[in-house]
Design brief:
single chain; 81 residues; alpha+beta; 4-stranded mixed β-sheet; 2 helices; 4 strands; 27% strand; globular
């Protein structure tokens, strides 16, 4: 099976759970978005997928056109250089 990657994105005004490049649902809290991602990840895990889940420690500005966790990782690595 493939990789199922989930990202929690947003700020204090609005949070989203992104999967497969789509972030359709909005949540009032980061925790609510995280709970939705965990529920979806649990199903994917049962189906045999590898799971990756990323959630920020605090609100920050996110770039809307991020397509994957690898884009996020590359940006974070570049910020550390």
């Amino acid at each position: 099976m493939g990789l199922a990657a989930y990202e929690i994105i947003g700020n204090d005004a609005e949070w989203r759970e992104r999967h497969d490049g789509k972030a359709e649902n909005t949540f009032k809290t980061k925790e609510a978005a995280f709970e939705a991602a965990v529920a979806a990840a649990s199903l994917a895990l049962r189906q045999g997928h590898e799971i990756r889940l990323a959630a920020p420690a605090r609100a920050r500005q996110w770039i809307d056109d991020w397509q994957s966790l690898s884009d996020w990782a590359a940006l974070m690595q570049a910020r550390m250089l």
